[in-house]
Amino acid sequence: MSGTQRLMPRLAWDDGFALGEQGMDLAHREFVDCVDALLTSDDEALEAALAVFERHACTHFAQEEEAMRSSRYDSARCHVDEHAAVLESLRQVKAALAQGRTEVVRAFAVALADWFPGHTEVMDKGLASWLARQRWGGTPMAVTRAIGAAPSRVGGPRRPVHAEA
Predict the structure, then answer these.
(1) Predicted local distance difference test score (pLDDT) of residue 147
(2) pTM
(3) Rg over CA atoms, the chain
(4) How far is the C-alpha of 159 from the C-alpha of 150, rounded, in Å?
(5) Which of 15, 53, 57, 136 allows an S-S link to 144, with CB 3.0 to 4.6 Å?
(6) DSSP secondary-structure letter at 121?
(7) Average pLDDT for runs of 10 along the chain of length 165
(8) Which among 16, 10, 6 has a CA at the least distance from the CA of 144?
(9) How far apart are CA 2 and CA 44, in angstroms?
(10) Rounded CA gap, 73 and 12, in Å?
(11) Which residues does residue 149 pair with via DSSP β-bridges, in sequence order?
């Protein structure tokens, strides 16, 4: 099915990914876009999409790792190891693509889409909280706006807004 766009899962930004750390949130939005491009590109565009992902991942991971080093983040080792595993997988995926094995790139993209939410929720949220405590003595807060939801009442749950007929 070379050259055709395949029906693949999508990865889209979800405000639940937001950490309240602006630089990390921007990098994560770009990560989501790069992975979605890998998921949806046709075979001829995969090499370019993989190159864009590689540039992004190297920069993104290096920025987070520098933040860990400069702030003396205690839980850095496991976080850095996860980044290294993604980059090692990327190296292997590039080699497979050079052999024309586009299915390996697609499997990698699906694995990244599965990995990202958990990594963000555990590893990146921990880092964002650490950085906020170092700067301000508190934890970060991500402010988002739910489309179609009424403003929440103090102490009350958010209520969906329904159109009356």
Answers:
(1) 55
(2) 0.77
(3) 19
(4) 6
(5) 15
(6) I
(7) 54 85 94 96 96 98 97 94 98 98 96 95 94 78 57 39 37
(8) 16
(9) 8
(10) 29
(11) 160
Which stretches of the chain are DSSP H helices? 22-40, 46-71, 76-98, 102-119, 125-136
Rounded to an integer, what distance in angstroms lies between the CA atom of residue 13 and that of residue 97? Answer: 27
The amino acid occupying position 58 is C
Residue 34, classified by CB atoms within 10 Å of its CB into exposed (0-12), middle (13-18) or buried (19+), is buried
Burial 71-93 (b: 16+ CB within 10 A, else e): eebeebeebbebbeebeeebeeb
The CA distance from 47 to 25, in Å, is: 26
Which among 6, 34, 3, 9 is positioned nearest to 110, based on CA atoms?
Answer: 9
User: Helices 76-98 and 46-71 meet at what angle, rounded to 10?
Assistant: 160
Dihedral over alpha carbons 72, 62, 23, 112 (to 10 degrees) = -120
